[in-house]
Amino acid sequence: MSSYVSNYVGGAFASPASVDTLAITNPASGEELGRVIMSTKRDVDTAVQAATAAYPAWRSTPAPQRARVLFGLKTLIEEHKEELALLLTAEHGKVIAETRGEIQRGIENIEHACGMPTLMMGDTVEGIAQGIDSESWRQPMGVFGIITPYNFPVMIPLWFWPYAVAAGNTVVLKPSEQDPLTHQRIVELAQRAGLPPGVLNVVHGGRESVEAICDHPGIIGVSFVGSSHVAEIVYRRAGGAGKRVQALGGAKNYLIVLPDADIDLSAAACHDSIFGSSGQRCLAGSIVIGVGDAHAQIRERMLDQAASIKLGDGLDESTDMGPVISAEHRDRVKGFIDQGEVDGAKLSLDGRSASVAGLEGGYWIGPTVFEDVSPDMSIGTEEIFGPVVGINRAKDIDEAVAMMHGSQYGNACSIFTTSGKAAREFRYQAGISMIGVNIGVAAPMAFFPFGGSRGSFYGDLKAAGKDAISFFTDQRVVISRW
Ligand code: NAD
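A: This is the predicted complex of the input protein with nicotinamide-adenine-dinucleotide.
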């Protein structure tokens, strides 16, 4: 394992202009795993120059040949899957079954991007006017900047860069500075797969490098995933600089359980949604609403299940839930729990004093359950991004949907029911972008677009799906008379 994570520019692991570094720790122990370079504006410029230089030759490389490099990368990731999963758990903390799943989801995006020669086909109409034919061509656009968060450090970069490069663009990627090790390994595998120098460049760092990407005149478009606060900053700043932008933000996801639901299946799905990855998923459920008689039943099961969670090192296969990413984030989550109590919510399970024997340096926070959470409390409105849930009651589905619509966010929501009619009406009324029906984590697969609405998303084209092809290409239309 590399103890020093440096930038990757023009096909080489580069010596950056910056000497500033940040510690990468194992969240389960607090142990330092390595250090990452905190790049400067000058480092971003060097990477953009490398990407710009590589663009003409990469653009003129036939599309099937570009895709072939990604086929090679997919095979290499599959061969190294277990090694990557172990590294990902060590730097992120999520349990090993979850890291295996994350890598698989990343592979699926590469597989989808491998179809680019078909996906980027244009349209033609013969005789669009008298003696005139028209056609559209999807062409790459240049250098794209991609900025990603800590919670899925393998999968989220793969929502973007394989599509961008398969379409003939070149890329400057800025991964999260909190857990950059595993994706760095994937970049090494991409190099081995034959991705030419300069096609994918990686600049590590934080705010300074993000701002430099937003401002750089050599970057044509920016893909961002992270908190809504930063998504809005990136959307305005990069958009103001004339770039195409897609910025995916935070969430507060509602899980609604109707009286006719299969309570056992619903409780299991809600439990996984809320506590999986220690609540650090943009699709994590954070408020469960039991409608009518469902409330007492779901409440009882949720409390039983939450109380039985085994905290521990994610590398131990018997662990149910790992730590959160950092001491700072643990303290932020605890701050929300403190405030929830002050605001008068009923704290039915308190994870603040959690610890794991032998791993006292880890960033632990146990499952936490509130009841009677109201929309004027910060735990009712803000994204907590930890293993904390509010369980509420609604008299009917209309009241439950109204509570959900009170949220500023619109990322995901789920309904649990055995009624097709209720599910269909919910889909119609939800007004939220990713909808689960008897599914707690409404995660679109690579072939569908991933992204929210309202305060969860800034832009129009989302990640992956057909949107990725539209985002990373421009449609050029030719009308001709011969
Ligand atoms: P974050 O916003 O703190 O960081 C995201 C990226 O922005 C990182 O690369 C970081 O270096 C950079 N950054 C941080 N602060 C910045 C600033 N002030 N100016 C410029 N750049 C800055 O997010 P995070 O904590 O890494 O990730 C968790 C967040 O991401 C949650 O809000 C979660 O909901 C969201 N998320 C959303 C989706 C989605 O699909 N909508 C998916 C995953 C995560």
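The radius of gyration is 23 Å. The longest helix spans residues 41-59.
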